[in-house]
Amino acid sequence: MDEQHQQLFEQLNRLWALLIENHNRNEVIALVEALQDQTRAHFQHEEQSFHLLEEKEAMLHRLHHKHLLETIQGLYQFIPPNEPIPVHCTMDRLQEIAEWYQSHVLHGDSKLLIRR
Fold it and tell me: Would 82 be classed as within a structural domain?
């Protein structure tokens, strides 16, 4: 699971760097899609271990996953067709996602790792 977490952070960093460097719309969309796919795959893998959690804890964890996937999906609203990408809005959303990942790994996923 730690390798998956590392890959998710690397994907976020690539997206961040791309936005700072050139704002190529097609590349940004491709990275957002990749981040979304990797996150979804990671969550599916992680949820296979939810039997180790209490039911209420597992439900809350799933809700956190759903919220993050919706937040990532929300990035698309900041990538308008035929217009420059408003970098400040996108960066704010990426910062929110990065903070979510960090908090979730340290406080949520650590419970799964301890119980394995």
Answer: yes
